[in-house]
Amino acid sequence: MKRLLVTPFIVVCLLLSVAETFASTYYVAKTGNDSNSGTEASPFLTIEKGVTTLTAGDTLYIKNGTYDEHFSSTNDVVPNSTSWDNPVTISAYPGDSPILNPSVPSGTIYTFYFGTGDQYVILDGLTLEGSGGAYEGIRTDGSSNYFRFKNLTIRNHQNQGILLGGTGGNVEIDNIVSHDNGTSHGRHGIYIATSNNTIENSEFYNNFTSGIKLIHSDKVGNNIVRNNNTHDNPTGIQFGIETDDANNYVYNNLVHDNTQYGIELTTSLSHYYVYNNTIYNNPLAFKFAHTAGGSGPAHDIYIYNNIFFNNDEAINFTSDAFSNIFIRNNLFYWNDIDITDSNSISTQENNLFTNPLFSNLASDDYHLSEISPAIDSGLSVTEVAIDYDGVTRPKGDGYDIGAYEYPTSSNVASTGTTDSTSPTTTTSNTSSTISTTTGSSISSSAPTVKLTQTSTGNTAITSNEVFGNGIEFSGYAPANALVSITLTDSSGKNTPGMAKVGSDGTWSWTPPPNLKPGNYSATFLVQDKQGNTGSTTLKFTVDEKGEASVTESAQDSSREFVEIEEEQTLFDDFVDYLRNIFIIPLQGILN
Question: How buried is 363 (Cβ within 10 angstroms: 0-12 exposed, 13-18 middle, 19+ buried)?
């Protein structure tokens, strides 16, 4: 007789199979009834009925509609599980976007509150709306542990969008949008006061104080903040007080257009790793601030491979309460001030101060172009295995600087696209230069451009192929503005460029060498610090001798600059003119 050999492995598989077999799926819809069975054909009416029906391993699907409901484990409403093998899942029905907006006449209500004992719960695809008076969208408290919050929209709450509190942690936050939360100072898109959490692929904007905040006494450690877009908050990301040996990682984030600080770091914390972020258009990109009550200086802060672009100030140490600050292999460009470190607190090595040559700045595309100096110029940081788009790092001989690795996810060179709003009309076959007596008194809404053959120096590569060298574009634009260039050849290939306008209103740009003979179009878009824009398109031909000549030019005057300083300069010039013509000769006669 044959015997059946039953191994522990077979027993475990059988148990898992049984567990999956008994997992149930329930449905909620505005057309349902709580006396129904909860199937898709006979759904419940309220989420509360569905949630109280769930046990470990079950899933509740919520269909479209607005639900005036909230949930708290203190009332034993939200069930929990014992592992990720059989979590409790509360999810939007596939393709639907249900909204939870509890009405709160008084008191403090959280849309979802998880306390001690709660664990292994997934929230997926819901919109948590706070306009009805909810204090916070989600709060974890006590020893609650192990949650996955994904594909959520969390908005308009009085306090935080999400608060991870208590002594637990181990929360995974993926692809959420948290905006317009908080009605007073100290309210944030997400407030992280626990450890071992991951916040990724999410967007935080228009929150009252910070998009993302990590702070609490000796509790905030081993967190990862990566691949997020945090913008239009007073502060994009804030690191708080009293967190020693934190080992928090912040990388691959886009931190931009915040009204005070891109990143703010206070005293009494250590071991923060800030890698491969692109930080732009902030008044102060990275603030090191002393906070009253801190027990000691911040130390062991590592700032590697970041791009600091177009900030009023990139990095500032407001006190000397810091030590072991390492600023390495970053790229700084078009900041009014790059680094303020009057007490020489930081170690600065291998930083670049040059044009990053983004793919298409005119379209707010901060990917790297194929000629960017940020390519392969970063330090090797093995913790950063992918970029903002999910592209594996490194692609070339080294890590790239900034949130994006070149080439892009499609493995096709990202060389920019022509601005779709560029003018299509043309004028006479001359370059669009204007003369000025001061060099800075311009009132044009678009940059002026002229093409110059600075040298010949052309060499035949083959008997019938000659390449163009020694070509330069230059002109006038508002002082300290930025000119973004897209050079397009006859095949449609785009090459990006960039030039910073000097304080005298002049700028110049040299295209890549060895331009092949043929027809080209160059679009020059100027943008000042206030966001005003104007553009000029210039068409030219490189002949077989490698010499370039303008064929057509056009200006876009639909977007006007408001340049008070320029108008004042013109007025001053006129006053000087009158003085030279009338006053000085008259003084000579009187004398």
Answer: middle
